[in-house]
Amino acid sequence: MSPLEADVVATGPWLVIGLGNPGPAYAGNRHNVGFMVLDLLAERVGDRFRTHRGRADVADVRLAGVHVLLAKPRSFMNTSGGPVAALRTFFKVDVGQIVVIHDELDIPFGTIRLKLGGGDNGHNGLRSVTASLGSRDYLRVRVGIGRPPGRMDPADFVLRDFSAPERKELPFLLDRAADAVDSLVGRGLEATQNMFHASTARPHP
């Protein structure tokens, strides 16, 4: 890589990916919480998504004073990696400036956790992204949805809408996740972890 190319990578935008399945039939599913967070982030800054070369819907925004591309792959969850890799190449984004927002079964509902790298923990969307990028070293915003009740298959659980009690708390969860993304691109991973890992309780007014 030439010095010029290295400079382009270093100063390129952040790429924030929300994982989900396209189409109205899936819009309220637990598996689509990544899309929900991106919709809120775009709404906050008064922007909207536009189709980018047919592979993803992209909003070009600024968060915390930083240039950020919000992207929702138009492929299904299990093949999310192709659009993510294509966007990374087109916009010259360093893998360290890629953030993936996804649902997480092993975290209680209402909890936000952030990390850099790691395995996919059985999440097919993450598996596809990792394979297509050829790296695990991207940032993750993990949105807790909890484990399925009884003996329900996790694959069925994630493709169901949030329960009525969960829907009452969902706006607060999406707000926290959106705040975490804003902090992550503006303040970095460690500072954001310190803020969001310290407490999961809903603050009282």
Automatic annotation (TrEMBL):
Main location: cytoplasm
SUPFAM superfamilies per the UniProt record, alphabetical: Peptidyl-tRNA hydrolase-like
Domain of life the protein comes from: Bacteria
CDD domains: PTH (cd00462)
Residues annotated for tRNA binding in this entry: Y26, F76, N78, N124
One Gene Ontology cellular component annotation held by this UniProt entry: cytoplasm
GO MF annotations in UniProt: peptidyl-tRNA hydrolase activity; tRNA binding
InterPro entries: Pept_tRNA_hydro (IPR001328), Pept_tRNA_hydro_CS (IPR018171), Pept_tRNA_hydro_sf (IPR036416)
Feature type site, description Stabilizes the basic form of H active site to accept a proton: D103
Active-site residues, record numbering mapped to chain: H31
Subunit annotation: Monomer.
Protein name: Peptidyl-tRNA hydrolase
Primary gene name: pth
